[in-house]
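Sanity check

After download, print the first record. It should look like this:
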Amino acid sequence: MTGAAREISFDVGALTLSAIEHAPKGGAVDAPVALCLHGFPDNNHSFDRMAPALADAGFRVVAPLMPGYEPSSQPANGDYTVAGLADVLGDLVRQLAISGPVHLIGHDWGAVIGHVVAADRPAGLASWTAIAIPPTGRLIATAAGAPWLVLPFWYIGVFQARGVADWLLSRADWQFVDLLWRRWSPKWTPPEGMLDSVKATLSQPGVRTAALAYYRQLASPFTGRFKEAVRRGSRRIKVPSLVLAGSRDGCFAVDAFRRAIRAEDYPAGVSLEIIEDTGHFLHLERPEQVNALIVDHLCRAAGLSPSQAVA
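Expected structure tokens:
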């Protein structure tokens, strides 16, 4: 069996990122790493149901808090652009790759940023898995070709109202967080207490502002950093890739994935898996099904069967 989870941290430039680590079965020091990136409104406990399965398959699982989601990882220059966040997390991939290959997994914002990191092709990256988000580099073109797909993103406009949005997000014990989870996963109710951890994370000094800054810096499409992110996200991803989507996602409709995923963008191969009757948090709604798909994908990318990975 895998060892218990433990808290660790990484220094990445001037930032310190806390993370939850699950040791691989057998405790191999050179085990491949599964780096799991969470989204909004969420935290790194989003992978609590996935990490044991990955660890049992022989992977060292590292789930950091995203930059800004704790005081120690809030950049002094306030750079929460997609390019800036990809710089930080790309450096973390390179740091982890010193001890073994890295398999990158991202959900929601973790998938938006993770796609750019994967497209940057850092040394040591072995595979890419996106959960609930179509390819970042295709999002603008997809929205332009099917504008009705952006209707669920009304909240991004709300988040541009500084002060008002900050108050709205946290008022009445963060009820807006509950609202988003209900809308995005309409057929599923989070277990009692699951969102307490998320709200505690968002309540830390500076985190609410940082989380909203991810969205606010999307509203500057003519800046150099925005254009840089689009350019980097449009590169081909040269590692085996898996994209998972929920058939009832209240955030991104399945049609967005089918429009945005193109085989030529993934010379090492890409697979789109639609999980029926699940929403945006499909990895929490159907953990056994999602975990099995991801373990198989990671093991195939490593050239192993799941049984070989554990051996």
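If your output differs, re-run the checksum step. Summary of this record's structure: The chain has a mean pLDDT of 94.
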